[in-house]
Amino acid sequence: MSARRMFSRAMVAALGAAALAVAPVGAPVGAQAIGQTPQARAVLPGIEGAILLDTMALPFKVRGNRDSIFTALETVFKELKLPVESRNAKSALLNNLNADISRRLGDVALSRYLDCGRGFSGSNADFYRITLAFSVWVEPATGEPQQLMVAIAASGRDPAGSRSAYSQCTSRGALEKRIADRVQELVGTPR
After folding, report:
1. Residues 6+ apart with CB under 8 A from 146
2. Does any domain span residue 169?
C-alpha cells in the first residue's frame, strides 16, 4: 500500500474518531458516553454563530440516583409543556435546540425567565415569539449529591412585524432554578 493511501486512511480514521468525540447531543445512544459533557450547539435566529450550551450551564446539587433524576426531568418538561427533541437516559440528558414558545411557559409569564428588553407594552419576552434552546444533563458523580446542569439560551422577535429583527434574550436564572427545584421535589430527597 502506498504512503499516500495509508495517510488518507489514517486521516479518515482520525476524522471519524474526532466526529464521535464531539457527537451532537441528539446523536444515537453510544455516540456520547457517560462522563462526557454534552456539546450541544444551538443556532438561534438573530444571533451570530453557534451557542455552546455546555459552557453556560448553571449547576444545581440534586440528591438521588441518575435514573430517578432523569425520570423527574422528563416529568418536569411535560409539566412545563416544553417539547424535548432528544433524550439520552444513559447520560441523563434532555434537550431541544429550537423550541418555539410565546407569552407563557406553563403558568408563568416568560418575562419571569427571560429578559428580551422592553418596549412600549412592557417586557418584550411576554409579547415576542421566542426561540428557546435548552440542554439539561446530570454530570457524572462518584456519590451524592449529583450535579444537575441546566443551560438555556433564547432569541425573540415581535410577531406583529413592526420590528422584523430578532433580538437576543438573556436568562434570568429562574427557569433553571425552577427545573432543579422541581426535579429535587419529585425525587423526594431534600438537598
Report:
1. 61, 62, 63, 64, 65, 66, 69, 138, 139
2. yes
Q: Is residue 129 part of a domain?
A: yes
Q: Which three cell numbers stand for residue 74?
A: 422528563
Which residue segment(s) compose the domain that 88 sits in?
34-187
Is 178 contained in some domain?
A: yes
Given the C-alpha cell 500500500, which residue does it identify?
A: 1
- The answer to whether the pTM exceeds 0.90 is no
The number of distinct structural domains making up the chain is 1
Model confidence pLDDT, tens digit, residues 142-163: 667 888 999 999 988 888 765 5
Contacts of the segment 103-111: beta carbons below 8 A, 24+ positions apart: 103/127, 105/80, 105/81, 105/175, 106/79, 106/80, 106/81, 108/178
49-100, pLDDT tens digit by residue? 888 788 889 999 998 888 899 999 999 999 998 999 999 888 788 988 888 8
Residue type, 84: V
